[in-house]
Amino acid sequence: MTVWDNIYINYQKGGEAWATLSEELLPEFRSFIQDNDFAQKSALDIGCGTGKYLIYLEQIGFRVSGVDSSETAIEMTKGSLGDESDIVCANMFEFKIPENKFDLIFSISTLHHGSKEQVRGLINQIYDNILPGGKIFITLPDYESSQKWDTFKNNQDLGNGTLSPLSGPEKGLPHSFFLESEIQELFSSFRDVNLFLDNKSRWYITGRK
Q1: Cα–Cα distances in Å, from 79 out to 2, 19, 75?
Q2: At the top level of CATH, which class does the domain 39-208 belong to?
Q3: pTM, whole model, 2 decimals?
Q4: What is the DSSP track for 169-199?
Q5: Count of C-beta atoms within a 10 Å radius of residue 30
Q6: What sign results for the dihedral spanned by CA atoms 44, 45, 51, 55?
Q7: Using 50, 70 and 90 to split pLDDT, how confident is the model at 4?
């Protein structure tokens, strides 16, 4: 059972809506979708959680797919989208993104749950496999977040801006934090890259292949 499966099971039992479980859809994501054209309207959510972003996209005509490491989250998403929906339980760093299927790949508050090397590998795979002209919307935490988040007051420093909390629901799960210069380099293959830092020290990254 994964760390996140425990979080979702506890949430189902009336426990804390941890992290983004309590968060509404980002208005910046809605604006991004409304302000851009998607010829195929085929979307992949990496770290789909309860599926709220996929539900929104399906309602406006997208074909949707999702991947999450929590079996409980997958069940919750399929409960909303249907058992036949394309929702896969897998480690995102081991998941193989289908080639030339998606013209939107996005990930909200998820990609940083791993080492910098793993994050880089996944971003490269997104670039390689998204349709030409396909667009991305991804969030990553600024390095400053590691100094602000309560759960990181006690942590294990894994090096290179990656920390693992020693307490709390995400105990033992690596979190990578990024300088703006690192993010610019990570997404240098994409065109029209735009970075925005919100009041939670979270970077929103958009761009296209």
Answers
A1: 20, 21, 6
A2: alpha beta
A3: 0.91
A4: TTTT--EE-B-HHHHHHHTTTSEEEEEEE-T
A5: 14
A6: negative
A7: low
> Residue type at 206?
T
For residue 146, give both structure tokens: 């590691």
Span 23-30, average pLDDT: 90
Per-residue pLDDT, 128: 98
Predicted confidence (pLDDT) per residue in 136-173, tens digit: 999 999 988 767 766 777 888 888 889 888 887 778 88
